Amino acid sequence: MGDSSAGDPVGEQFGDEDLYDVAEWDQRSLLDTLAVKTHGAVRWGGKGLLILTALLLLVAQVGVIGYAIYRNPAIGGLTLLSVVPALGLAGFVWYHDETMREPWWPLAVTFILAILFASFAATVNTALSPLFDGIQFGMVLFFFLVVGPGEEFVKWLAIRVYAFDRSAFNAVIDGAVYGAVAGLGFATVENALYIVQGVIRANALTGPGTVEAGFQTAYARAFVGPGHVIYSAFAGYYLGLAKFNPEDAGPIVVKGLLIAAAIHATYNSIVTYVSFPGITFLLFILVYDGVFGYILYRKLSRYNSYYTRVTDEDDEPTVEPAITRIDDA
């Protein structure tokens, strides 16, 4: 089997000649320019269509959030409080990146795209969940085959659509930063939905004005949100690794998504089938997220240690010998 990375034989042999439209190509003619412009329009048009579809789904599915916040502004405050731990964890991942700090704009776009694309996951989850009814341990299958892969993919997609192609994404570790922000965006909209649903259910039982249920839901979701940050930071890290290893990009991306989906689905399965009385639920979350958070921390630290060595070597001055040896003269 030949080397797939090798160049065209004509290009390699006659590389010093003008091989335009023979074995090489660059933009020269009006037709070339048209081809470049058309490719760009199709590429960005596809992304635009994807984002527009996600926006329409989001409006259709969670427009109730805005109405609920309008009727009861406390819900908005509870949503913000519920994502504080996830925000802190995402901030830690961002701060732990010892390369050039990521600018706010691609981070903000990634956050917004994660909110938009969450509607895709919600649609798929709702449509496929009945298929697992009546099956023994059907929820485990649902989490491992649908929820975990689907939610981690849409968070990954929030990075891939925009930040991945930006010049600011210039190191492997940047993928973890954008992954953490995508997880934060996803957790924000998911928490808002759960809080609104909790208030609606409580209002149906006890009458309007019940915010206590929303507070209880926000309290619970505050400890769930960091998980989303950790899961997608893993997937994002491997997306960064794929960017700088294009020859193996596909398997690397799949590995990252498999890791994120497995951690996610395992968590969902445990909390669904295991009863945690009292404070033991909080302790479980702290241990579970702590273990995988530490693994992620070790991975980021290892990258940073190599990056520090690179920068230290670049900063070392070149010292010329003060005395010329006789045999060097």
The averaged pLDDT comes out at: 79
Order of helices and strands: HHHHHHHHHHH
Tell me the number of helical segments per DSSP (H or I, 4 or more residues long): 11
Q: Tell me the helix content.
A: over 70%
| Annotation, overall tally of beta strands | 0
Note the beta-strand portion: under 5%
Cα separation of the termini: 52 Å
Rg estimate, integer Å: 25 Å
Main sheet makeup: none
Structural description of this entry:
It is a single chain. This protein is mainly alpha-helical. Helix content is 73%, strand content 0%. The chain is built from eleven helices and no strands. It has helices spanning 9-13, 30-71, 74-82, 84-95, 104-128, 138-160, 174-206, 212-222, 225-243, 249-273, 280-315. The longest helix has 42 residues, at 30-71. Residues 1-5 and 318-329 have low confidence and may be disordered.
